[in-house]
Design the sequence.
């Protein structure tokens, strides 16, 4: 069995040549198709070209760009040339970029466009190892004369020239790639400390995809939309590796802004969103429904309960009574199908969610519409190990372990994983590897539990679990994802600790949805700051917090909250690039506000430094109101299961 | 294409009001020239003379070998002078693509009947022009608003569509009347980037009216300063910035 990516590519090429489409991308308003032969040629010539420019085995190749066929080709070509590729998030700041390029000892950078090339050129004096920067979108770089940069298709041309005297070399090179060779580096998102580079082998990537497909088969005819950043391990496992193994067509959207539109044009069977994107889609749907004409809203209100009922029956393996079935069928044609069509998910078979965990309410919502949304669990270091099985699905649990992976829970509740896809090590960090991997088990640092049906539920990072002064344990993230289900709340930070008596929360309102809500009620507002501090908006948010409080254990309920005057922002390091809150940093930054939440104050003045997009900094001063959440009667929650 | 612009001794008055008094300048081809000056100095009137909306009473305007002074504006457009307006002038009911295609109207030659039945030449032509339009959409990063009705777009985006429409006619000389008025810093930076991209890629000469001095000084090769219809300075940005008359016109004292 073929166990390396370049080998798989070569096999697919030999099998399909021009008879099947490997990739499709939209450019200049049209979808352009690349067959397996096109893909193979691009990879071959690029590999030759890079070698001509001085790429040596074991060297590292950084790739920074939006999802594009060139991204994929760059990875396969580097691997074929025995080098190690790795991805960098496109919105990486100068210092982040410098860290990645230095830490990895990169010698080549494949950069998307002018923006990325400019960033790298501004750092180039610090990076003596870089031999060439290759860009694939020439826009804005026409006039730039610089020996260190070269156009992607000029490298391809170099490779074509080279082939004339070296026919068949590519196949020889590919044959020498071993399954235990390092295929790719994945920098872990690093909620703490500097990111570490997990070294993943070809075998690890391939096995993850194969194990996955033994549970959720993908078919040749499937369309996959590549949207998650390939710098992220998830896209490595699915699009880059899974695409080769399942021999599906991978589609690339025209621009990040046109994804919705492109989804509709493609109608993919498989998509993979982060939980944030699912949340975004849900609030988009809810906002559009609130905006639409009466009859459509009426249909939505009429059939959604039917959809929920049908979904719940499926979850509990109950037969639905005949009249409910009829109603559901009516709903399918009058509401669910057109609705799914609008968001491009009409023919979706699997909607996967990764990243921070997703709220059960969210899963139920999508299932009610007929969208098979399932969460999965895994880490860059271990591959994907847990997935929702079709026959044993529940929105409240994460899922069951995949074949060839093992999971156990330690005494302190930590999840440990053993799998075929375990990383080979961290680049230049033996110590971290020894600390994380003991006796073949990878210790994830995540808190979770396994139920009587062998299903895993992931709660939170252990280090993020908190204990109040009374000894009540709670998970801030558990509360936050439930808060975020509300379309008016974009983000939330839940606070509590050994020195605190109760739980409080800092809320980021969703500007667009709250804005529309305010407009519909003739509440005048000017800016985000103004809107967030309106008493009516506090009332709106309060209502939702009370709703969430009802499913939380008594001691973990939110007692006070404040609407923050700004959104948490990755550019200010408040969020990671995958939009997880950097908890300790944010808590530190808003320490005076948090102190106020635990005092008798009703208002607090915040002075916060802000960074503009162009890098300048400034101070803003705002008064925010602190709101108590009135006590709800003391009852233990029902319905929601807690460890 | 010969696209050197020469304005010679142009005077314009409305009744007794003198708007432009003997304005002369020459523009090197493939360059960016900015026209600056206080409000009411006659900047827009000057560019209106260039593309034929106003007819100056005295003087001539030469574009290459052609005398623009007495030509109607649609003929001037055919010679390759495109422009955008200070107040946005788009077909608000059409989509972005529709507006850009309208900008290429004068480059289309198939007849009404062929167009109505969409056969033969008309079809080929449509494909060709749509491709050109898509290239502009790509250049100006308007993919996400391709099929949006222009009336629904934000001000900054409409300005971008207007630049796109002016580009659609493939001008040799592009006149931009305050393309960045009313924009925030980020939108302005984008716009400057687009203008420079157009200049780099197509070699289009650009006449720019702009109030943001930072931008003017950054991107222009030549700056002309007007004050009450009289040209008071002319030269490289650094020279003009030091010119006493200019400082006086802007600040009102020495």
Sequence:
């Amino acid at each position: 069995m073929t166990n390396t990516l370049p080998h798989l590519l070569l096999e697919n090429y030999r099998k399909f040549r021009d008879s099947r489409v490997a990739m499709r991308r939209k450019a200049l308003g049209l979808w352009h198709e690349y067959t397996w032969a096109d893909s193979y040629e691009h990879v071959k010539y690029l590999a030759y070209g890079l070698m001509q420019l001085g790429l040596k085995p074991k060297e590292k190749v950084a790739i920074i760009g939006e999802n594009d066929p060139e991204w994929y080709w760059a990875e396969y070509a580097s691997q074929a040339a025995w080098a190690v590729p790795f991805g960098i998030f496109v919105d990486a700041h100068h210092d982040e970029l410098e860290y990645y390029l230095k830490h990895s000892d990169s010698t080549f950078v494949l950069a998307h466009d002018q923006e990325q090339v400019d960033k790298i050129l501004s750092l180039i004096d610090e990076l003596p190892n870089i031999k060439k920067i290759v860009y694939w979108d020439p826009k804005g770089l026409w006039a730039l004369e610089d020996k260190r940069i070269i156009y992607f298709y000029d490298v391809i041309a170099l490779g074509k020239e080279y082939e004339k005297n070296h026919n068949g070399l590519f196949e020889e090179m590919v044959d020498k790639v071993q399954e235990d060779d390092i295929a790719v580096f994945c920098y872990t998102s690093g909620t703490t400390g500097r990111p570490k580079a997990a070294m993943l082998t070809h075998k690890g990537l391939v096995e993850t995809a194969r194990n996955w497909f033994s549970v959720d088969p993908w078919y040749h005819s499937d369309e996959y939309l590549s949207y998650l950043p390939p710098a992220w391990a998830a896209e490595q496992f699915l699009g880059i590796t899974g695409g080769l193994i399942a021999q599906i067509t991978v589609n690339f959207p025209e621009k990040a802004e046109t994804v919705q539109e492109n989804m509709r044009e493609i109608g993919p069977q498989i998509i993979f969103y982060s939980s944030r994107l699912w949340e975004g889609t849900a609030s988009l749907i809810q906002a559009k429904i609130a905006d639409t004409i009466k009859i459509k809203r009426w249909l939505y209100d009429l059939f959604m309960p039917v959809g929920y009922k049908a979904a719940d029956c499926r979850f509990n393996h109950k037969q639905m009574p005949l009249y409910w079935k009829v109603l559901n069928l009516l709903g399918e044609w009058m509401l669910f199908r057109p609705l799914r069509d609008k968001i491009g998910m009409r023919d979706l078979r699997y909607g996967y969610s990764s990243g921070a965990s997703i709220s059960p309410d969210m899963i139920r919502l999508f299932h009610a519409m007929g969208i098979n949304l399932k969460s999965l669990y895994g880490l860059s270091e271990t591959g994907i190990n847990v997935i929702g099985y079709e026959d044993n699905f529940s929105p409240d649990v994460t899922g069951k372990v995949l074949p060839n992976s093992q999971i156990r829970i330690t005494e302190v509740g930590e999840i440990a994983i053993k799998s075929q896809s375990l990383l080979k090590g961290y680049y230049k960090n033996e110590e971290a590897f020894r600390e994380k991997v003991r006796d073949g088990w990878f210790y994830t640092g995540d808190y979770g539990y396994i139920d009587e049906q062998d299903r895993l539920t992931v709660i939170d990072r252990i280090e993020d679990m908190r204990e109040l002064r009374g000894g009540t344990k709670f998970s801030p993230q558990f509360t936050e994802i439930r808060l975020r289900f509300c379309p008016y709340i974009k983000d939330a930070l839940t606070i509590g600790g050994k020195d605190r008596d109760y739980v409080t929360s800092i809320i980021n309102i969703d500007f667009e949805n709250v804005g529309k809500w305010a407009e519909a009620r003739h509440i005048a507002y000017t800016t985000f700051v103004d809107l967030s501090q309106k008493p009516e908006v506090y009332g709106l948010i309060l209502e939702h917090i009370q709703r969430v409080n009802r499913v939380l254990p008594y001691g973990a309920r939110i007692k006070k909250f404040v609407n923050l005057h700004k959104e948490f922002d990755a550019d200010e390091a408040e969020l990671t690039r995958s939009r997880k809150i950097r908890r300790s940093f944010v808590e530190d930054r808003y320490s005076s506000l948090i102190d106020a939440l635990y005092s008798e104050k009703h208002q607090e003045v915040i002075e916060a430094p802000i960074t503009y997009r162009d890098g300048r900094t400034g101070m803003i001063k705002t008064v925010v109101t602190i709101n108590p959440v009135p006590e709800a009667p003391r009852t233990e929650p029902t319905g929601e299961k807690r460890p | 294409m010969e696209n050197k612009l020469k304005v010679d001794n142009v005077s314009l008055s409305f009744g007794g009001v003198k708007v432009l008094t003997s304005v002369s300048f020459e523009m090197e081809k493939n360059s960016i020239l900015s026209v600056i000056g206080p409000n009411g100095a006659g900047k827009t009137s000057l560019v209106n003379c260039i593309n034929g909306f106003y007819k100056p009473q005295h003087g001539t305007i030469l574009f290459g070998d052609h005398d623009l002074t007495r030509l109607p504006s649609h003929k001037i457009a055919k010679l390759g002078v495109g422009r955008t307006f200070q107040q946005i002038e788009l077909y608000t009911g059409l989509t972005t693509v529709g507006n850009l295609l309208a900008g290429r109207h004068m480059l289309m030659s198939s007849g009404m009947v062929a167009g109505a039945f969409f056969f033969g030449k008309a079809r080929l032509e449509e494909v060709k022009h749509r491709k050109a339009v898509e290239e502009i959409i790509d250049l100006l990063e308007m993919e996400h608003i391709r099929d949006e009705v222009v009336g629904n777009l934000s001000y900054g985006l409409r300005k971008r569509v207007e630049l796109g429409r002016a580009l659609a006619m493939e001008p040799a000389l592009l006149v931009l009347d305050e393309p960045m008025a009313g924009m925030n810093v980020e939108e302005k930076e984008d716009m400057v980037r687009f203008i420079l991209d157009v200049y780099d890629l197509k070699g289009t000469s650009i006449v720019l009216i702009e109030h943001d001095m930072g931008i003017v000084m950054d991107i222009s090769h030549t700056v002309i300063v007007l004050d009450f219809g009289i040209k008071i300075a002319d030269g490289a940005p650094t020279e003009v910035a030091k010119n006493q008359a200019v400082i006086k016109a802007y600040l009102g004292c020495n």
